[in-house]
Each structure stands twice: as structure tokens, then as C-alpha cells.
Amino acid sequence: MIVGVLLVDVYIPESNSLKEKRSILKRLKDRIRNKFNVSVAEIDDHDIWRRAKMGIAHVSTSGKFSEKELQKVAKFLESDFQIQVLDYEMRFL
Length: 93
What we know:
The chain contains two helices and four strands. The protein is elongated, with a radius of gyration of 13 Å. The protein has one domain: TT1725-like (Alpha-Beta Plaits, 2-Layer Sandwich). The relative contact order is 0.34.
């Protein structure tokens, strides 16, 4: 079993409050979950209006398959107009 983890640091320019940030992130997380077979959570920067760190996990029997799926998620995030991806890192357990 391979667990692939994508750690993503995002900037949310349209957010002017924690309520807006959570609303934007909720819609984004729902779209990711519906499009890809992954788990998604906000893992840090909970109290910063325009920043978020997200953790995305994918479980598979193949490391290459898990890497491909997480790369698709990263491209999806980079194409989203409501956020800017500042940095991301992939890890495999």
C-alpha cells in the first residue's frame, strides 16, 4: 500500500474574512473530492484570511499511479481562478 500526500500552500486573494476563506475552501475541497478519489483537509493557517495549507491524500497499490493522480490534483488547483498556488510538495509513505 502506498499513501501519496500532496501538501499545498495557497493564497486566496478574494477572501476578506475567515468566513469567506472557509466558504471558498469548502467549495474547492468539494470539487476536488468529486473529481478525484482523494481525501482533502485544511491542515494549517486556520486563522489567516488569505492563506491556507491543504493536505491531500491518495491511497493506492502503485506509487506511479498515486503520483499521477496527485499531479492531476496539483494541475487542477493551479488552474483554479479563486486561488493561487504558492508552493506544493509531494510525499509518499
